[in-house]
Specification:
Layout (H helix, E strand, L loop, with lengths): L2 E6 L7 H16 L3 E6 L5 H12 L6 H25 L4 E4 L21 H7 L1 H8 L3 E5 L2 E3 L5 E3 L4 H12 L4 E6 L20 E3 H9 L18 E6 L10 E4 L8 E5 L4 E7 L9 H11 L4 E7 L2 E7 H16 L6 E15 L8 H11 L4 E6 L3 E7 L3 H12 L1
Parallel strand pairs: 1-2, 1-7, 2-4, 3-4, 7-9, 8-10
Antiparallel strand pairs: 5-6, 9-10, 11-15, 12-14, 12-15, 13-14, 15-17, 16-17
Length: 406
């Protein structure tokens, strides 16, 4: 019998009616022969209410240890209500919280943003397997952990999603199901565009990038625990059915690690187009990129300045790009000239941890500065940093950056 880990967000168990609906969905899977582990968040707005009380009563005098202990009450209440609801439907269930000996999620003592002790958590998760073998549906607190001294910790943002994927991995589950207030992952925010459509599938890499840029469906931190062998999907609570279609999360791909550094194999050439106050002129960038597209020339990167646009092109196509872009420049009243620059190397650094790592660009570039390696250009997003250096410095720079990431 396969194991399902089902995580219910705060909105999906926002009141008694929704809790019963969720419990019935769990029991339905159980009656069909599945072993189900439930992870629940705090009931909708419970944590916000607790934080407001803490702020008015204690304020800044509260310690991190006290805060973790107090905010845990939301999840500690949820598991008791949810487990009792399952039992009211005639199925054995047990709630599990960090105060209990069998609690599986072990962390360090960073109370409000704890780091998971993966090895210890895998060992402790065996207790959950024993309950499943006894025909019990375990209901666990999302978001919470416990340090080696028995103190309650919290996993930070996206904590309940982390709990679900972590347990899915440790229990070698068949599937992890994230139940939310939306029917899956949408092509864009449906509150902003009514034409938004639900995606049937999305890769881990796409989901991570979408989440880091503001999508609220799933926290990117949780995806580091997504096992490629385990199915995963996001569904809406309104179905009341864990087998309902939603958005399937694919991967991660074995060749796309969560943390990586790459160096392009061939040199890249720089083409700089200049013109007075180019950034204030509409359509210039589109004209340049459309010209290259029409000639099947790929662009590795674009950098813009007040009076210039820099394009990074494969060296083998640089002369052709230079020639065709020259025709665009001399026929444009807004562009004055262009130049074909030196050969450079492109180093790409990717990690989902960047979004929560202050000073990451400084850490990456510091060894280059110390070794007098000039950076021709640098660009970044929330999960990646791309550095361009002289081709002759490429391999040295790559090794230095890779050591920083390791």
């Amino acid at each position: 019998m396969g194991i399902i880990v089902a995580k219910f967000g705060g909105t999906s168990i926002g009141d008694g009616k929704r809790i019963k609906k969720a419990a019935r969905a769990v029991v339905k899977e159980y009656m069909q022969g599945k072993k189900v582990v439930v992870v629940v968040s705090a009931i909708n707005k419970t944590t916000d209410d607790i934080l407001e009380i803490v702020n008015r009563s204690i304020g800044e005098a509260i310690t991190e240890k006290q805060m973790a202990d107090i905010v845990s009450m939301g999840e500690i209440t949820s598991v008791r209500v949810f487990s009792s609801t399952i039992e009211s439907l005639g199925v054995k269930s047990e709630y599990i919280d960090p105060h209990m000996e069998i609690w599986p999620v072990i962390t360090d003592s960073n109370y409000l943003n704890a780091k998971i002790d993966f090895a210890e958590t895998e060992i402790k998760s065996r207790e959950i397997l024993k309950l499943l073998d006894q025909g019990v549906i375990p209901v666990l607190c999302g978001f919470l952990g416990k340090d080696r001294e028995g103190n309650i910790t919290t996993l930070g943002r996206g904590g309940s999603d982390i709990t679900a994927f972590l347990l899915g991995h440790c229990l070698q589950a068949e599937e992890v199901i994230i139940v939310t207030d939306v029917g899956g992952v949408m092509s864009t925010d449906p509150n902003k565009l009514q034409t938004a459509k639900k995606l049937d599938k999305i890769s881990v890499e796409e989901m991570r990038d979408l989440a880091t840029h503001g999508a609220q469906v799933l926290h990117p931190h949780a995806l580091r625990y997504k096992d490629p062998k385990i199915n995963a999907k996001i569904i809406g609570f309104e179905h009341g059915d864990l087998s309902a279609p939603g958005t399937e999360i694919m991967g991660p791909s074995k060749d796309k690690m969560l943390r990586s550094t790459t160096l392009n194999n061939e040199p890249i050439s720089v083409i700089a187009v200049v013109g007075e106050e180019m950034l204030t002129k509409v359509g210039i960038l589109a004209e340049l990129t459309k010209t290259l597209q029409d000639n099947n020339i790929n662009i590795y990167g674009i950098s813009t300045g007040q009076n210039s646009i820099t394009l990074f092109i494969d060296r083998s196509e640089a002369d052709k790009a230079h020639e065709i872009l020259h025709e665009v420049v001399i026929n444009s009243p807004d562009m004055s000239s262009l130049s074909l620059g030196r050969e450079i190397a492109m180093i790409s650094v990717n990690s989902q941890d960047f979004i929560d790592t202050p000073g990451i660009i400084t850490k990456i570039t510091a060894p280059l500065r110390k070794n007098k390696i000039n950076i021709v250009e640098i660009s970044s997003s929330q999960t990646s940093v791309v550095i361009f250096v002289d081709w002759n410095d490429g391999k040295r720079a790559y090794e230095m950056v890779r050591r920083v990431l390791e």
